[in-house]
Write a structure and sequence with these properties.
alpha+beta, Beta-Lactamase, Phosphatase 2c, domain 1, 5-stranded antiparallel β-sheet, 27% strand, globular
Length: 387
């Protein structure tokens, strides 16, 4: 790392939370003669790149900013550089820098600085609304605000897997949600197909999500996580409200997938260009009855497998009095093979918006998980032994 790059990274660490871009711009001007620095963050719909400062949103798919965002690599056009901003697979947006000399070492240093900006944005966002507010092309409903604050991130990448999810309609979601966590040995994923309307639906989903997190962090099995969340929801609502939930756990050393289907959203496997539903056992939704016992199922994932979780708001979307349906969904999922999970999710949501000619009316959640195979990750995950 050059001294100039080190100083730029240090300027980000030492900057006040609301002045990251200002302090970075000043340091880049001194170190590299750069006169223009602007951050564009992707909005909640994954449809626009919104400037932190003054300027117009970027919406054209062919724009260099979107090519940078999609391919996650620097793009240079006539001394204007676009650099991906993100952290651990989570794509936050792009950094526009000008002028940028066509010097590989400088481009590499600026790319590293843009990544450092992504880390700092994540670190400071809990203490300032500056960056969250700038990601919105319109006002969020209160229910949507609650749901987005509940999410872990929209994408995650590790050597063994790649993961992405999206809620729709992004600015007015109610009860649909997802949650995930990994510890280097296992990946946990929960997808909730919420019920009800507005804040009441968001509160119900929040209760279930925190109950699942509490059980997961206590080291309980997947079935016991479902049982604890089921008890929490039932204790409050006595069966009058419940939640369809899919719980998944992947052992990163082996690719063994454990599933608990609590009246869940749909789980679809894309393997070798074939699309089919995994044969999971339907069990009662969380909170429907008191003291439900849940059963686990196990499946072996193969390297290259892609899993989609979709709520009923996807299949049941209606455009021109025609339902989107299973056939259209399966046909589209086959076409996502070459795409990274976040791009696959964004493409599916875009296809749905085009189908309904606007934002979705019903809540929809889409999650995509790629299993790339057992491999070392942070020194904790070993290769799959012969069996």
């Amino acid at each position: 790392m050059s001294a100039a790059e080190d100083r730029a990274r240090r300027s980000l660490i030492e900057a006040p939370a609301d002045l990251l871009l200002d302090r970075l711009g000043a340091e880049l001007a001194t170190a590299y003669g750069i006169t223009s620095v602007e951050l564009y963050q992707v909005d909640y719909r994954l449809a626009e790149l919104l400037p932190l400062g003054e300027g117009a949103p970027l919406t054209s798919p062919g724009h260099p900013a979107w090519r940078c965002f999609d391919h996650q690599e620097p793009i240079l056009v006539q001394q204007v550089g676009w650099f991906p901003v993100g952290m651990r697979g989570e794509r936050r947006g792009v950094l526009r820098i000008a002028p940028v000399p066509a010097d590989p070492d400088t481009v590499e240093a600026l790319a590293g600085i843009a990544t450092a900006l992504g880390h700092e944005l994540t670190a400071v966002s809990a203490g300032t609304d500056v960056y969250r507010a700038a990601r919105r092309s319109r006002r969020l409903t209160l229910a949507a605000e609650m749901q987005w604050e509940l999410l872990p991130a929209r994408s995650r990448v590790r050597p063994s897997f790649s993961l992405a999810g999206q809620l729709e309609p992004a600015y007015a979601v109610r009860g649909d949600s997802f949650d995930w966590s990994d510890d280097g040995d296992r990946l946990w994923l929960a997808t909730i197909n919420g019920t009800g309307e507005g804040v009441a639906a968001a509160l119900l989903t929040s209760l279930a999500t925190y109950a699942l997190r509490n059980a997961r962090r206590a080291g309980l099995s997947l079935a016991d996580q479902a049982a604890l969340a089921d008890q929490a929801v039932y204790a409050l609502h006595q069966g009058e409200q419940h939640l369809s939930t899919l719980l998944m756990e992947v052992e990163l050393r082996s690719g063994v997938l454990t599933v608990v289907d609590a009246g869940s959203p749909r789980l679809v496997l894309l393997r070798d260009d074939d699309v089919h539903d995994l044969p999971i056992e339907a069990q009662f939704p969380l909170g429907m009855f008191e003291g439900t016992d849940y059963r686990e199922q196990r499946f072996d994932l193969r390297p290259g497998d892609r899993l989609f979780v979709v709520s009923d708001g996807v299949v049941d979307a209606v455009g021109r009095d025609v339902r989107y349906g299973d056939t259209a969904l399966e046909r589209f999922l086959r076409r996502t093979g070459p795409l990274a999970p976040l791009d696959a999710v964004r493409s599916l949501i875009g296809d749905l918006r085009a189908f309904v000619a606007g934002d979705l009316i019903d809540d929809a959640v889409v999650v995509c998980l790629d299993w790339t195979g057992p491999q070392p990750s942070g020194g904790r995950v070993s290769t799959l032994p012969d069996r």
